[in-house]
User: Fold this.
Amino acid sequence: MSLRRNYIARIVARETDPINQARILMLLYLIIAYTFFSLCLIFAYAYNHQDLQLTRASIIFCFAILLLGALYFANVWKLVAHVILILLTVLGIWGNLMIFVHGVNVATLQYIWLASALGFYMLGSRWGWFYAIVNIIPVLIDGAFTNKSYFFLSSIPQVVTRPVHIFVITFDFFLIIFLHYFFFKSFKRNFIKLNDTKNELNAANKKLNRTLTEVEQLSNARMNFLSTMSHELRTPLNGVIGLTNALLSQDPRKDQEETLSILKFSAENLLTLVNDILDFNKLDSEKVELENTPFNLAWLVENIYASIKIKALEKQLTFKLEIAEDLKNKRLYGDPTRLTQVLLNLLNNAIKFTEKGFVKLSCVNLEQSNNQVKVGFIIEDTGIGIEESRQKSVFEAFAQASASINRNYGGTGLGLSIVKKVLDLYDSSIQLQSSLGKGTTFSFDITFPFETMALDDNNNSLQQGFSKNDLSALKILVVEDNAINILVMRKTLNKHGIEPDVAENGKIALDMLSRNNYDVILMDLHMPEMGGYEATKLIRALGDPVKANVPIIALTATVSNQVIEEVLSVGMNGYLSKPFHPQDLFAALQKFMQE
Assistant:
């Protein structure tokens, strides 16, 4: 019993498709049945001295043994099926018509049914039709011709004893019934299996959809939590950094300046940490889309260079900047904020991990067409370097180049992960070359649409961007309820001779606007009695067109795409995230003064 199971299992195991496995089993049972059937006929025909019938039965027996061996030793079940069908056609149907019966009897019809069904079940519709037609044509010819001598060979019909005749017919009927039963049973079993699999798949899909919904809800909850925490952290940081900047601008004593510088450095590091976590969360949630705004690359890079040059000087590093001349007169279109984020992350890392030598930023024109330019960015340093085995992992979230990096230099390990995600948005990738103790080079390229502008106009526009003239003439209303933030805004604006009016909420701001004209309103979003959103809607609905169209800049410690969209949708002209750099505030004021 075990031997038979192993024999069958070996033959069936070569096929993974359940339908093909059923076909092989059906073929195997058919051959085994014919083996015993032909052996019985051999004894019967030998006993009755029917040599011609004995020859046919012997041929069938020999082929049955050979086909069983072929099935066992090779995966040739389709070839075996063809051999059986050819034997049925030649020895069964055509043999009966031409040699053994000289006509169509019950056995001949059984062979036709058997061959047709076997052709379709085993080999598919194409071969099924072929064998059906090949076996039906002789019957049609037999019925069409009356002159038997034209069609048959010169031999008399072979007489078969009644028991043998009944045995042959019964066996053939059994095979035909078995063939249909077995294939139907296998088809039904596989259909039920497929139906069960479909139900399991539907259940798995429902479970997966529920899981995805839960994951999305968890992601939104995480995003909301981080946004809330960002707001709560940014509000006191705005006071710390703003007041520190104000104190540093008031010519403090040397010892005070050192203390204030450390305070500012620590607060800015904390702000960088908050920004990195929030940006990573937004990028990881795929909720960031690149802007497509015009900017001048030279102006942008020079500002980045100026903003972090002091860090390089504090470490006595040489900080080099090279910008290709043919990039200086181009107005590029892209997302300058995200590009700044990438460059600041790479340059800050380069300065942090370099103790002596230089840090260099290069911007080169790699390729240019009529309306597009491929800009290559290269950041080089002579710092500690990254060992080769860690170079791929440094772009993973919270990863550091070595275990001692966080201990010696600090940081979250999010900077390079953010760089990679931002460059993915640009369909770009970053390349890294580094040697331990010799330095590191990061490089990437981005293709920007561009338009050429006159170099003089560009220089003038850059100079105007830094111009601080005439800001004292601006009449500004600050709408803010936080006392520390109000103090920061007053001191920041006072540096440029601006004495702002202050309203503690939107309701007071509307009353003050009704009595005065303002050039710009700096509007907080969340305040008691009336917040910035509602106040802006009411201002835009005023009957006085001058008051209704006053520029409004949102001041918010909450930075998210949703907030930015809401700010713009209610009619505000722009926004500044708290804490903000004084330079960013004055750049925004300069913009509205020019308009």
Summary: The longest strand covers residues 439-452. Confidence is low (pLDDT under 50) at residues 148-154, 398-410, 457-469.
